[in-house]
Structures are given as C-alpha cells and as structure tokens.
Design goal:
- This protein is of the alpha/beta class.
- The chain has 2 domains: about 140 residues, UDP N-Acetylglucosamine Acyltransferase, domain 1 (3 Solenoid), CATH 2.160.10; about 80 residues, Udp N-acetylglucosamine O-acyltransferase, Domain 2 (Up-down Bundle).
- The protein is about 20% helix and about 25% strand.
- The chain contains 5 helices and 28 strands.
- The strands form 3 sheets. An 11-stranded mixed sheet has the order 1-4-7-10-13-16-19-22-25-27-28. It has a 9-stranded parallel sheet with strand order 2-5-8-11-14-17-20-23-26, with no helix packed on it. An 8-stranded parallel sheet has the order 3-6-9-12-15-18-21-24, with no helix packed on it.
- The longest helix has 15 residues.
- The protein starts with a strand and ends with a helix.
C-alpha cells in the first residue's frame, strides 16, 4: 500500500502504486495515476487527469494539471491532462498545465530535469534528457526534442519547436523554431553550433565538422532557406561522416512551420543597419 502522510488529501479515484510516497500537505484531486517508486515530497498538487510513470521525484509547491492560462479555454470541455514519463526530477515551484486537447496530453518524457519555478504551458511536448533551468518558460504547444537545454530565466514563444541537442542560453527569448544542434542566445538569435553539447553527447569530431558545414550553409552563406536545404542535401550526398545527423538537421528545416526559423545574429545586425 502507498505511504500517504496523514495531512495529505487523496481523491478516491486516484491510483497509487504500492511503493509510492505521498508527503505532507499533498493534494491529489481527480483520477491521477502515481506510478511505482514515485515520491511527492510535500505540498504537491495534482489536479485532474495526471499520470506519473516510474521513479519521479516531485518537490514542494509543484502544481501539475491545472487549467491552461488561455482566455479561450473552456473548462467544461474534456482534457487529455498531463502525462509524465519516468525518472524525472521536478523541483520546487514548477507548474505544468493540462492540455487543451481532449486527445493528446501535455507530455513530458523520461529523465528530464525541471529546475525551480520552470513552467510548461498547455499542450507542451518535452522529449527525454532535457533540462530547464530555474524560471525557464515554455509557452503553450511548444515542442522540445531530446537532450535540449533551456537556460535560466529564458522563454520560448507558443508553438515554437526546439530540435534535438538545441540550447537556449540564459536570459534569452525564442520566438522562432530552433534547429537541432544549434545554440541560441539573447533575443531570438542563433549564435553557433552547440559544439559543447555535441561533444558531451559523444558525437565524433568529424561529424561535428560536418554539422558545422551545414550550419555555415544555412546561416553564413546568405542563401534562402530552400537553396540552403538543397545545398545541405548535396553535402549529405558527398559526406562520409555524420550523414544521419545531417539528415536530421535537413528534415527539421524542411518542416519549419508558421513560426519560421530563428535568424543568425549577423542577419539581425544587418537588418538593423539597413532598415
């Protein structure tokens, strides 16, 4: 039987694993599922349809599953809620809002680290092995692929996508899509390839060099995006290193949505000088 502190309030519709720990002053309001080896340390509030997988640790003052911060949201409509995977560390004050979609939940994958006061808006999709530093914010419908890092006090606009091993530096803002393997900083500025992140992930130097070439084609060669995609495709044909990652980079560029592509810092500076 789950270990439930006497001061906790647990809805009769909730499902708790036998070894789950529900600490003092926690509230589980609704048909939540708390999986094996999960620990709600204290003063955690789960609202509505929330599913926690295995081995998640949730620190005090975290709220998961409350209504979206969206003026158009109709609370009477069904929601798919929030689905959290396994082995996530969710630190103090994190807020994760339920989906506005009745079919697809706000989703957090596995092995993520959400630091104090970070926020995931409604319908956000987070992959695996991601880190959101203190007070990092993802607007509604944002998508983060695996191994993404978001610096402290940084924010991504609604509907933005961040590719795998992308990084947004601290005190930064993102309003366009950030390709995989790219570092952005400041106000919506692509700075360089995320070389440190690639090295730490075990990517071979020769592959990093190939990705640098792709980055240069996209951002430094003054091509339009369709021409850049064509040139990167040619690079893939000619390359003997890192073709899988080059293909991932190219495919992301081909799928840019209405939010557009984050510009390079030099592009923004040139625009300021010529307008």
């Amino acid at each position: 039987m789950a270990q439930i502190h006497p001061t906790a309030t647990v809805d009769a519709k909730a499902e708790l694993a036998d070894d789950a720990v529900i600490g003092p002053q926690c509230v589980i309001d609704g048909p939540a599922v708390v999986g094996p080896e999960c620990r709600l340390i204290g003063s955690v509030y789960l609202s509505g349809k929330v599913t926690l997988g295995r081995c998640n640790v949730v620190y005090p003052f975290v709220t998961i599953g409350f209504e979206p911060q969206d003026r158009k949201y109709d609370a009477s409509m069904p929601s798919a809620g929030v689905a959290v995977g396994d082995n996530n560390m969710i630190r103090e004050g994190v807020t994760i809002h339920r989906a506005s979609d009745p079919d697809a939940p706000t989703r957090i994958g596995n092995d993520n680290f959400l630091m104090c006061n970070s926020h995931l808006g409604h319908d956000v999709q987070v992959g695996n092995h991601c880190t959101l530093a203190n007070s990092a914010l993802l607007g509604g419908h944002c998508t983060m692929a695996d191994q993404v890092n978001i610096g402290g006090n940084s924010a991504a606009h609604q509907f933005c996508r961040i590719g795998r091993l992308g990084m947004l530096g601290g005190h930064s803002a993102l309003v366009n899509d950030l390709p995989p393997f790219v570092l952005a900083s400041g106000f919506n500025q692509a700075i360089s390839l995320n070389v440190v992140g690639l090295r730490r992930s075990g990517v071979a130097p020769a592959t990093i060099d190939s990705l640098k070439s792709a980055f240069d084609i996209l951002y430094l060669s003054q091509h339009t995006r369709p021409i850049a995609i064509e040139r990167i495709g040619q690079l893939i044909k000619e390359s003997t290193n890192g073709t899988e990652l080059l293909c991932e980079f190219k495919q992301f560029l081909e799928s840019i949505n209405d939010r557009g592509l984050v510009p390079h810092i030099s592009t923004q500076q040139k625009h300021k000088l010529t307008r």
